[in-house]
Amino acid sequence: MDFNLPEELQLIQQTARDFADRELAPLARRLDREERFHKEHWAKLAGLGFLGFLIPEKYGGAGLGNLALVIALEELNRACASTGVTVSVHNSLAGGPVVKFGSEGQKARYLPKLASGEIFGAYALTEPGHGSDAAALETRAVLKGDRYVLNGRKAWITSGAMAGLVIAFATVDPSKRSKGITAFLVEPSFPGFKVGRHEKKLGIRGSETVELVFEDLEVPGVNRLGEEGGGFAIAMDSLNGGRIGIAAQAIGIAQACLDASVRYARERRQFGRPIAHFQPVQWKIAGMAAGLELARTLAHKAAWLRDQGQPHTREAAIAKLHASELANRAATDAVQIHGGAGYCTDFPVERYFRDAKVTEIYEGTSEIQRLVIARGVLGDLP
Ligand code: CAA
Known about the structure:
Elements: H1 7-34, H2 40-47, H3 66-79, H4 81-101, H5 104-116, E1 120-124, E2 140-144, E3 147-158, E4 163-171, E5 181-186, E6 193-198, E7 209-220, E8 224-225, H6 231-267, E9 269-270, E10 273-274, H7 279-308, H8 313-338, H9 349-357, H10 366-378
Parallel strand pairs: 1-4
Antiparallel strand pairs: 2-3, 3-7, 4-5, 5-8, 6-7, 9-10
Helix pairs in contact: 1-3, 3-4, 3-6, 3-7, 4-5, 4-6, 6-7, 6-8, 6-9, 7-8, 8-9, 8-10
């Protein structure tokens, strides 16, 4: 067993780190304040191959896989979690399912545009009334001739208004619960596609989060992804990948908290010496460092298993659960180490504190991750 990253992955890590330091870090604060995504970054990310990690080279992607994606996401999120989640959703929840479940025609139509950054990808599963209980979603899909007509509302959709492709889930038969759910490749130009309200958020304010409204939305039959009733399996498989991406996001935020805390603790003097001399500060820093070591190992293992095509539902849930709880602890401790300065916007830790929270919520709350882990451990109950 070799715990060193192979040369190719080290190169991706360094490239992502340089890009994050040079392009993302200087703008992250402003984008958070202005609550807008910086589209100029998108073309540059595409140029680095970061928008097509899972897309084969044949379709213009980098074809590097989930472990490479995780390693890049850790670095991007260290500088800007808003850019991080936009890249994560684009790769794992939009490109990923088309690669895995798409027809040849669907791949040829969408993958090159996703990889080149010509379009943003989004994923629309959640509804105002159905978040954790995704199998109970209410958006209806009715086949009429050669097209499906969708009616319903989708909530908290990352990049939903910017997207050129939305992986949308609707049910063809609610009585079948998860077995009625069907996936569709939706373009914003399809009649009946509407963008609802833009959410005002606690954190990741530089990413776009909107409601989508489907009013007699017409989706050509050829844009059904997979089989009728096969959508829930697609949704869950995609989320297994997405959850590893959110683990990487949380790792990036926790690393940023550690870096900022180390810097500040060495500089800030109280009682005649730098506060890094004091044990309460040291313990907080040690907790972040120890947590990060574990979080990286878990996330890399889950991504590696996914790349190998081996079962990884439980590992993805464990990686996300651990990393997201670490990010929140690290952010709380980083603000505490900074004291009054950490509570103000001159230092980035207040942003990390706000950004960290959502990692315990989206792509499955911590409670859902525990449920997934417990079901995996307990198996079928008598
Ligand atoms: N991987 C693979 N298969 C899975 C799975 C997973 N993670 N979770 C469930 N399944 C399978 C089950 O094995 C089962 O398969 P069979 O029917 O073949 O046996 C099927 O799906 C139904 O599962 P359950 O019987 O367990 O269904 P349930 O309704 O009791 O529970 C759940 C399912 C685990 C609670 C699921 O609904 C879930 O994960 N909920 C959370 C939803 C979520 O994560 N939403 C995030 C929104 S996306 C987002 O945030 C994106 C963004 O923009 C950032």
